[in-house]
Amino acid sequence: MKWLGLNTLREKYLSFFESKGHTRMASSSLVPQNDNSLLLINSGMAPLKKFFLGQAVPPNKRVTTCQKCIRTPDIENVGHTARHGTYFEMLGNFSFGDYFKNEAIDWAWEFFTEVLEMPKDKLHVSVYQDDDEAYNIWTQRKGVAPDHVVRLGKEDNFWEHGSGPCGPCSEIYFDRGSDKGCGKPDCHVGCECDRYVEVWNLVFSQFDSDGKGTYTEMKNKNIDTGMGLERLACVMQGVDNLFEVDTVQNIMKHISKIAGVTYKENDKTDVSLRVITDHIRSTTFMVGDGILPSNVGRGYVLRRLLRRACRHGRLIGINEPFLYKVCDTVIDENKCAYPELDEKRDYIKKIIKVEEEQFAKTIDKGMELLADMIENIGNDKVLSGEDAFKLSDTYGFPIDLTVEIVEEKGITVDRTKYNECVKEQKDRARADHNAKAKSSWASNEIKVDVPKTIFTGYTSMKSNDSKILAIYKDGESVQTATAGEDVTIILDKTPFYAESGGQVGDTGFITGIEVTDTTKNEDGHYLHFGIVYNNDINVGDVVSAEIDVERRKSIMRNHTTAHILQASLRAVLGEHVHQAGQLVNENYCRFDFSHFSAMTTEELKKVEDMVNEKILSSLEVTMTEMPIEEAKKLGAMALFGEKYGNIVRVVKVGDFSTEFCGGTHIDNTSKIGLFKIVSESSVASGVRRIEAVTGKGVLEYIYNMNALVEKSAHALKIANVNELANKCNQMVADSKELEKTIESLNQQIADMKSNNIFDNVSDIDGINVVSGVFQNTKPDVLLQMGDKAKDKYSNVVGAFVGEFEGKGTICVVCGKDAISKGMNAGKIVKAIAELTGGKGGGRPDTARAGVGDFSKVTSAIAELENIVKSMIK
């Protein structure tokens, strides 16, 4: 058996199944398309589910893929074991109602024994205990020795997931030798030791389960196979785990060089090297598919992986951003199979570097917050699980870092409560995810069995001879609909553009129907949603279909402008700018893009001027279909995560912009009229949003702005609107003077109230204790009273409560001498607040809290002296 590299194995597998009549499909994006049931693609079958469920027609009944996958349930184990990882590639060959067990087993055996030249005596097979057919194929048809075939139960060798298609499995194992085993004489396939490695799983989908134990034989049976590429590479390269596979090991070597450590010399550094190696693989591919770090959803998964890798970088002595450098090696090792990584190299590195830099700030902020928490820990020396979770969830401070820091101070973390908080968060996320998944499946309930729609809307706004192929009411197919009913119509051909690519769907009229929206399903059926307004409509009717032309023209102006805008942003801000979302309708163009800071006034003006210059240059806009490779040679930009066919539509705006796009556009930029940026804002970390208007929208914007200026001038009693700016500046100056006056008055009030309370100072073992409760007093006044108390006495403990506009505030201060005797304002204010049902905390010298029930304030303040006595050292 010869050594083969991971990239070679991938190509050999895909080429082999192409030779067997399979269509090679490119890996889908890690972001599920039209499927809210998954957060990230986690198996080779996941992107093909629509074909298995009959929701879409595959390009061929035989398909082979190598699919990028992310799985994170065992993320805490990554690094601590040699087998766990979050990123992997899954090889698969699939049959949608074509071949079945004989061919699947034949080709698996041929690929292993003839293409890869694996020794037959090293291969073992498992089959489902009741699957005599598979057992006989292996032993009689392929000649596998019976002692190399084992029957396993439903838990091991039967694939099902609730109701729907399911069936028995047959797994192929590689025997790594007795030296890798447990040493037991009965060691065999299925043993928990490392001797027998499962390499390939063949799933025979032959039953339809009702989810209650009844299995019906399916007429059209399917094949779904899965083989982990990294696991196969381990076998072919004779290594123990994925971290020793050639491409992965090269990534680890880069990390080792930066850190100045060597793999397999120290157990602790080995853990960190494995974590970083795995996580940078995952994150590079995730960012390459358009995922951005955030605090929710898949963005949260990305952020967690990146920050965990950063944390382990610090553990091995790397205290500066470095992952973006390692990202180069990840791309170099994978660009032969995923060239888009190389194309987006600068963008991916920029996203990762920015997140590393932000995490460095997070670490500093977390250290500050943790220090405050430690300061307020009681005698039990336990950091609450809620505080640890708050650090982790809200501030991104890793739990393992929290544990390490507090342990150095003899403090433990309440991991039980922390885990409960984590579980509660996961349960909430899962409930939300399941709700979205249900709505996702609901949208796929309509089963369409008519030819797909021909779209004529690129060249025509109207069709006089379209035919109604199907009518749906409430998700059910009907033959007739009457006036007043809500319907979904499918035509044989239509000029109506279906919502996609950020462009809204067309509205208009089909004979007898007012169309309010248009979408399309996976199979290319255009769904016209509308209301029947005149007489009955029937399946088979020949009708006229006409879009709202003026609305479409406005949409086209905004869509073409979005292309010019992206090119302008890249020219002004840099090549890292990529589209991160888009909405173009008849009213405005909303464009989301990757960028890491708010645009300056100067940058916005440059972009706006550049877009208008291209509009006024009357550039020709062309739309051409061509092979995807030819489009790439033209430099056409593609959307992140978007999957394109062999033939793509390319939209060129002169020589300024070239993009893949299926939307509708004007044919000359002069028809846009003018362009005006209305707003620029943040959408998420690393994503900005521009909203802009064109054509008549610019005129509307000018009218609205003029009206706003006139209303403002009228409100300020200015006859000449040109004086508006001067008037506003004068009002700001007057406001600042008033603020100074108010501050001075507040200080006078604080002085007056303080003078009275200092007449009743208690001395407790050398500590001056003073308190007071005040009505209609703002929190700022309380703080000023506290400052005055500390100025007057260095050994003071002061507690001041104020009520203002129905809200109560407690302010506690401790002088430096009082602190030296064990006083802590944060702990004191927390104790007082709890007696009222409120919460709060702060530093040892100054702290604030909210009052729960103001009627309990008097009794709570009365406990101040007892609280002080309990804290004296």
Q: Catalogue the unreliable spans.
A: 436-444
Percent range for helical residues? 25-40%
Q: What is the tally of beta strands?
A: 35
What is the radius of gyration? Answer: 34 Å
Written account of the structure:
The longest helix is centred in the C-terminal third of the chain and has 34 residues. The radius of gyration is 34 Å and the shape is globular. The strands form eight sheets. Strands 1, 2, 3, 4, 5, 6, 7, 8 and 9 form a nine-stranded mixed sheet that branches. A six-stranded antiparallel β-barrel has the order 13-16-20-19-18-22. Strands 30-31-32-33-35-34 form a six-stranded mixed sheet, with helices on both faces. About 1% of the residues have low confidence. It is built from 25 helices and 35 strands. Helix 21 links the parallel strand 31 and strand 32. By secondary structure, the protein is an alpha+beta fold.
Task: Compose a concise summary of this entry.
This protein has about 850 residues and is an alpha+beta fold. Helix content is about 40%, strand content about 25%. The protein contains 25 helices and 35 strands.
Topology, element by element:
Layout: H1 6-18, E1 23-25, H2 49-52, E2 62-70, E3 87-96, H3 101-115, E4 123-128, H4 132-141, E5 149-152, H5 154-157, E6 158-159, E7 164-175, E8 196-209, E9 215-228, H6 229-237, H7 246-259, H8 267-288, H9 297-315, H10 323-334, H11 339-343, H12 345-375, E10 382-383, H13 385-393, H14 399-407, E11 412-413, H15 415-442, E12 454-455, E13 462-473, E14 476-478, E15 480-481, E16 486-491, E17 493-494, E18 508-510, E19 513-520, E20 526-532, E21 537-538, E22 542-547, H16 549-573, E23 579-584, E24 589-594, H17 601-616, E25 621-627, H18 628-633, E26 647-653, E27 657-660, E28 675-684, E29 687-694, H19 696-715, H20 724-757, E30 762-764, E31 767-774, H21 779-792, E32 796-804, E33 807-814, H22 816-820, H23 825-836, E34 840-842, E35 846-850, H24 857-861, H25 864-871
Parallel strand pairs: 1-2, 4-5, 10-11, 12-17, 31-32
Antiparallel strand pairs: 2-3, 3-9, 4-7, 6-7, 7-8, 8-9, 13-14, 13-16, 13-22, 15-21, 16-20, 18-19, 18-22, 19-20, 23-24, 24-29, 25-26, 26-27, 28-29, 30-31, 32-33, 33-35, 34-35
